[in-house]
Specification:
mainly beta; Jelly Rolls; 6-stranded antiparallel beta sheet; 2 helices; 13 strands; binds 6-O-phosphono-beta-D-fructofuranose; binds fe (ii) ion; RmlC-like_jellyroll; iron; cytoplasm; glycolysis
């Protein structure tokens, strides 16, 4: 039998960079239709800021193996809504995932296929267990990059479809200087 080699490396805890990882950049233009306030979206699109970067060490899509990735989610808002990752179910919906907060301040929105949402605040050292079947999106509620590690089965895959279409049933906004998790007025059952 041919064994894969173990991997040991140091994540840069200040920048979130994983040496040798594949880098993915998502700009505001990659998130068309995701934010509630279209006017604010179009205005900010003139600058088309980077919303988040992902540094991933990925294996083949085989049962039993694991991927890991850091995400650097930049601070910012579209209207009242804080910057977030697209969010997804797993293509293999029963695959779970672990997140670990490294730097900055934010949280995770999780949601069942029926639309029951949960908000978990995150900071450095927070561990979040994403159970099978729950969609997940991270949100930066602070004013510095929010950096975290995700560890997930390499055959989990991403299913962006229904989140792209319907969003989450909750949104995370700033109102009167406070972070609020409120019902998404555009949410449809
Ligand atoms: O795939 P999205 O929803 O854009 O979010 C990116 C993050 O989610 C992951 O896909 C893990 O769930 C990572 O690759 C990355 O940390
Ligand atoms: Fe995931």
């Amino acid at each position: 039998m041919e064994y894969k080699r173990p991997i040991g490396l140091d994540i840069d805890l200040e920048t979130g960079v994983i040496p040798g990882a594949k880098k993915l950049v998502r700009r505001l233009s990659d998130l068309k239709g995701y934010f509630l306030d279209e006017e604010a979206y179009n205005e900010l699109l003139k600058e088309d800021p980077v919303v988040y970067e992902v540094y991933a060490i990925e294996q083949e899509e085989k049962e039993g193996d694991l991927n890991f990735a850091t995400t650097v989610l930049y601070p910012g808002k579209v209207g009242k809504e804080f910057f977030f990752t697209k969010g997804h179910f797993h293509a293999k919906a029963d695959r779970a995932e672990i997140y670990y907060g490294i730097k900055g301040k934010g949280g995770m929105l999780l949601q069942t296929p029926e639309g029951e949402a949960e908000w978990i605040p995150m900071g450095p050292g927070t561990v979040v267990y994403v159970p099978p079947y729950w969609a997940h999106r991270t949100v930066n509620t602070g004013n510095e990059p929010f950096i975290f590690l995700a560890i997930y089965p390499s055959d989990a895959g991403h299913d962006y479809g229904s989140i792209k279409e319907k969003g989450f049933s909750k949104i995370v906004i700033e109102e009167d200087g406070e972070v609020k998790v409120v019902d998404n007025p555009r949410w449809k059952e």
